[in-house]
Amino acid sequence: LRLVRSAAGAARAALRLRGGGGVAPLTLAGGGSMPAVGLGLWKVPKAVTAATVTDAIRAGYRHLDCACDYGNEAEVGEGIRAAISANLVTREELWVTSKLWNTYHAKEHVEAACRRSLVDLGLECVDLYLVHFPIALRFVPFETRYPPEWIHDPDASAPKMEVVKVPMQETWTAMEALVPLGLAKHIGVCNFNTAGLRDLLAYATVRPSVLQVELHVYNQQPQLLRYCADEGIAVTGFSPLGAGSYVELGMSTMEDSALSNPSVAAIAEAKGVTPAQLMLRWALQRGTSVVPKSTKMERLVENLSLDGFTLSADEMEQLARLDQRRRYNDPGVFCVGMGAFCPIYD
């Protein structure tokens, strides 16, 4: 019996480290490892979030990418509890990421924002807590509106974003304090460019473990990836399949999708995989992690099944030539519709 339990424990530990799907995790400079394939929870409807999380864990996912702004962290927590109750996973086998929203950048709000996410998730600690954008907005109390989103007062006669001047050093210092408090094991940032990272590293006493940015074959950011590799910062690519997540928001069309690109389709057919699997495998071979989103079990399984093939150097080069520097998630564009010009990329 002890041998059986030992073998089962070893298998569970191996799954935790591999992050499901047999894909090797990313080793973090600050210690520990992050599963390379995660489930993105952005735009997952509340009504199906809990079931999607439980299904994903059942399929083998061990990395959940959450955020205050996604508005579904309480439902993510329900899904985690259901999976743990069903003995599908233990808390220690999961990697859970959350993010600090723009309205909580002032030092007095960072810890409270993290604690609110923890309450919603039903956790004592997140594995990774990220600054969501290098954009500080005017504070909105929890009791007024949560999540507060971009517009400060939706009921105003002229609703708009209200940008405030909070130095990133103030925000990052408050982020660092979360680690000794046991609220976050690792901290990092999203949507930073190299200049923002260079500035942050000049004063950080706890270095960012992870940078999360938009990465897909049409937006490859090779210089940013090289800089992060030199600095020992792991990189996660959000929207790794490109345009699809932005069609319903009116920020792209399906004609923009790389999934139907002839080069992507041809290589995928030659490998006997789907275009989505090809793009995710390409991202992993670049040394990044990915957080694709789906609510369908067949897609969840497909997006995790990435270890049975590799791309040759020639195939990687063919895909590298597809780069258009095409960014779908750009505050310099979409914030204009909210009464603010707020570029963060050059």
Care to describe what's here?
The protein contains 13 helices and ten strands. The protein has 346 residues and is an alpha/beta fold. The longest helix has 17 residues, at 2-18.
Mean pLDDT: 93
> What's the gyration radius in Å?
20 Å
Helix content: 25-40%
Structural class: alpha/beta
Which blocks of ≥5 consecutive residues have pLDDT under 50?
Answer: 1-18
Q: How far from one another are the termini?
A: 61 Å
What is the topology, as strand order, of the major beta sheet?
3-4-5-6-7-8-9-10
Question: How many β-strands, per DSSP?
Answer: 10
Q: What is the element string, with H for helices and E for strands?
A: HEEEHEHEHEHEHEHEHHHEHHH
Number of helices: 13
Shape: globular
Beta-sheet strand percentage?
A: 5-15%
Biggest sheet features: 8 strands, parallel
Secondary structure layout plus pairing:
Layout: H1 2-18, E1 26-27, E2 33-34, E3 39-40, H2 46-59, E4 63-65, H3 73-85, E5 95-100, H4 107-121, E6 126-131, H5 168-177, E7 184-190, H6 194-203, E8 210-214, H7 222-231, E9 234-238, H8 244-247, H9 262-271, H10 275-285, E10 289-290, H11 297-304, H12 313-320, H13 331-334
Parallel strand pairs: 3-4, 4-5, 5-6, 6-7, 7-8, 8-9, 9-10
Antiparallel strand pairs: 1-2
Helix pairs in contact: 2-3, 2-11, 3-4, 4-5, 9-10
Question: Which descriptors would you attach to this protein?
Answer:
single chain; 346 residues; alpha/beta; eight-stranded parallel β-sheet; 13 helices; 10 strands; 39% helix; disordered N terminus
